[in-house]
């Protein structure tokens, strides 16, 4: 066996059966090993697309995603995806080929220092210098990717290491890293909760990553407090929980933002006080004490001081801090906010109103469908107007906000969960960022449903230009977009364009009943904006709405 | 304010650049760097002097997470964080 064949053995030993990638010179030995392997490789059309597919696979399944790239440009094309996985805490192992050690450091063909380049966008990056260390390093990479706060790990393997002979190692399953949990502060947390008259749970992506959703439901049911979620936390709270107020932050619901600003205790569960959540940090939840649960000690006090910090496994901590609250008046007030500031869908005119379209899509899609977003106005509309029963069903590039995420992520999600419907909801700007992945959908006949919301603009940037840059619309006009239906047809994907509200129901029906991939091209009015909006520098209660 | 961090690391080629990357990115100015191989085991003792008005815990909590960092001590503060 050589090093390349050992790579495939380790993947199998780690339970990996699906990988994404793109071949090239320095990784040819591994692709030669793939030729006879039972590990299924999905050839993408760009390394960034491959890595986003691996991320979509990981986020929709909870498994580690794996992607491959060659040296030089193949490896540099991974960088954005690694950064995306780092900021959204996605377990990802990226394997890159490197030029042979004999020529390393000589600016050889397709040589770049990917180890150095990748350090700041990974949990850790390894270079394998000796084939005898290969299995151990790869095992460490998988352990590291999934342990603690998950994240991306890169393993750079020179070509000579891939070709070097090696004996099959004795497989030793490395012990899973135990999460160190301290229950020392749980009594203090219970005291804060029972003393609060206006408590609020602020739920991030860390809860489902800790596999603690049932513990969360029990905590919310027994402690009885209203809750809000971040973009990544959406789907964590049961849809029938009457005390759930929606997403908070820049484009959050008014009820969520107003209630958080008024609360006297914020119970932060696996979230990190991101600036898109807090608005003006000094004015964020000004009267609230904070309980912060997280697995990453570096998040405690990083942005907002925690009166009580609880570190470790949320499955252990949540039951330990569950305690009854006495806040009936507060619960009633939050209900009132929710009713007072509900969404309205009675938009005048015949043109398609994206929020209503997405509400209809949400109601029509099968239960447990996965929705993969791109980035921009449509992403916020999806978060506002679609409903999810698990964070694994809503894949959105949160921390990095990477346009081009949605289509390849949907490919990965469809391969992870072939039994579930998978939708890519994109905008006309984002769609073109990784449009080459239509080729991957075609090749593998993946029945991904694409809803392309097209306002012929870079809508979110245009919205900010309108509001904050005196309507100077610099470089946001995309009115020369291609014919998207014809573009899909070039990849043997049928499609249809709609422009009027009365076409929506029929078009959704046609899309869902078509057995294969489908593109629904939705033309919307370029003047529509995302509301509400917390303007830069403002406190979250000072939301701009369509009417003010 | 200046702080002195004594960091025990594995002897990997990327250790120093990673420490310096995190120090820079988190907004701390490098004021001194000393590096010594450990004679009794494969590792290094790195002394970092950094300046910033930010609380030093915001840097140490990030450094101690790094894969190659085994131990971090903050001089004069009697605080030591041992890698879990």
UniProtKB/TrEMBL annotation, chain B:
| Protein name, per record | Acetolactate synthase 2 small subunit
Keywords in alphabetical order: Transferase
EC number from the UniProt entry: 2.2.1.6
Quote the InterPro entries the UniProt record gives: ACT-like_dom_sf
Cite the SUPFAM superfamilies for this sequence. ACT-like (SSF55021)
Q: Top enzyme class of this protein?
A: transferase
Q: Name one GO molecular function term.
A: acetolactate synthase activity
Q: What's the encoding gene here?
A: ilvM
């Amino acid at each position: 066996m050589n090093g390349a064949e050992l790579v495939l053995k380790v993947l199998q030993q780690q339970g990996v059966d699906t990988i994404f990638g793109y071949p090239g010179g320095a990784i040819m030995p591994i692709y030669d090993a793939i030729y006879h392997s039972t590990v299924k490789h999905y050839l993408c059309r760009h390394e960034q697309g491959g890595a986003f597919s691996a991320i979509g696979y990981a986020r929709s399944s909870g498994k580690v995603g794996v992607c491959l790239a060659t040296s030089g440009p193949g490896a540099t094309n991974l960088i954005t995806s690694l950064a995306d996985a780092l900021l959204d805490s996605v377990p990802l192992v990226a394997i890159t080929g490197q030029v042979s050690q004999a020529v390393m450091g000589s600016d050889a063909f397709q040589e770049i220092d990917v180890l150095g380049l990748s350090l700041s966008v990974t949990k850790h990056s390894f270079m394998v210098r000796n084939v005898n260390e290969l299995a151990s390093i790869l095992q460490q990479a998988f352990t590291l990717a999934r342990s603690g706060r998950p994240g991306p790990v890169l393993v750079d393997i020179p070509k000579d290491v891939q070709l070097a002979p090696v004996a099959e190692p004795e497989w030793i399953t490395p012990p899973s890293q135990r999460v160190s949990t301290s229950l020392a502060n749980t009594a203090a947390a219970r005291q804060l909760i029972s003393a609060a008259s206006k408590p609020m749970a602020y739920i991030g992506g860390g809860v489902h990553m800790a596999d603690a959703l049932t513990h969360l439901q029990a905590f919310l049911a027994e402690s009885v407090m209203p809750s809000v979620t971040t973009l990544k936390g959406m789907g964590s709270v049961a849809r029938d929980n009457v005390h759930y107020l929606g997403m908070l932050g820049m484009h959050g619901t008014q009820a969520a933002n107003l209630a958080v600003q008024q609360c006297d205790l914020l119970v932060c569960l696996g979230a990190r006080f991101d600036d898109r959540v807090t608005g003006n940090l000094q004015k964020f939840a000004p009267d609230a004490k904070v309980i912060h649960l997280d697995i990453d000690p570096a998040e405690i006090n990083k942005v907002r001081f925690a009166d009580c910090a609880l570190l470790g496994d949320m499955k252990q901590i949540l039951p330990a801090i569950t305690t009854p609250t006495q806040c009936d008046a507060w619960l009633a007030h939050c209900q009132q906010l929710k009713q007072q500031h509900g969404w309205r869908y009675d938009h005048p005119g015949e043109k398609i109103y994206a929020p209503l379209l997405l509400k209809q899509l949400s109601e029509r899609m099968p239960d447990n469908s996965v929705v993969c977003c791109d980035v921009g106005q449509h992403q916020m509309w999806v978060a506002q107007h679609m409903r999810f029963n698990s964070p694994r069903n809503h894949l959105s590039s949160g921390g990095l906000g990477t346009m081009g995420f949605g289509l390849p992520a949907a490919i990965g999600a469809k391969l992870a969960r072939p039994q579930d419907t998978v939708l890519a909801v994109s905008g006309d700007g984002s769609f073109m960022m990784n449009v080459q992945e239509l080729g991957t959908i075609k090749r593998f006949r993946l029945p991904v449903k694409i809803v392309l919301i097209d306002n012929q603009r870079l809508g979110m940037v245009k919205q900010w230009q309108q509001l904050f840059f005196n309507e100077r619309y610099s470089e946001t006009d995309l009115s020369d977009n291609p014919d998207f239906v014809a573009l899909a047809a070039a990849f043997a994907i049928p499609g249809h364009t709609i422009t009027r509200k009365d076409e929506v129901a029929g078009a959704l029906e046609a899309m869902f009943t078509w057995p294969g991939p489908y593109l629904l091209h939705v033309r919307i009015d370029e003047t529509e904006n995302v509301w509400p909006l917390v303007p830069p520098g403002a406190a979250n209660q000072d939301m701009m709405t369509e009417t003010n | 304010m200046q702080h002195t961090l004594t960091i025990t690391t594995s002897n990997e080629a990327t250790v120093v650049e990673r420490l310096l990357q995190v120090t820079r990115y988190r907004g701390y100015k490098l004021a001194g760097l000393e590096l010594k191989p450990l004679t009794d085991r494969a590792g290094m003792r790195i002394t970092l002097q950094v300046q910033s008005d930010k609380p030093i815990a915001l840097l140490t909590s990030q450094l101690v997470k790094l894969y190659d960092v085994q131990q971090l001590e903050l001089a004069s503060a009697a605080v030591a964080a041992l890698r879990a």
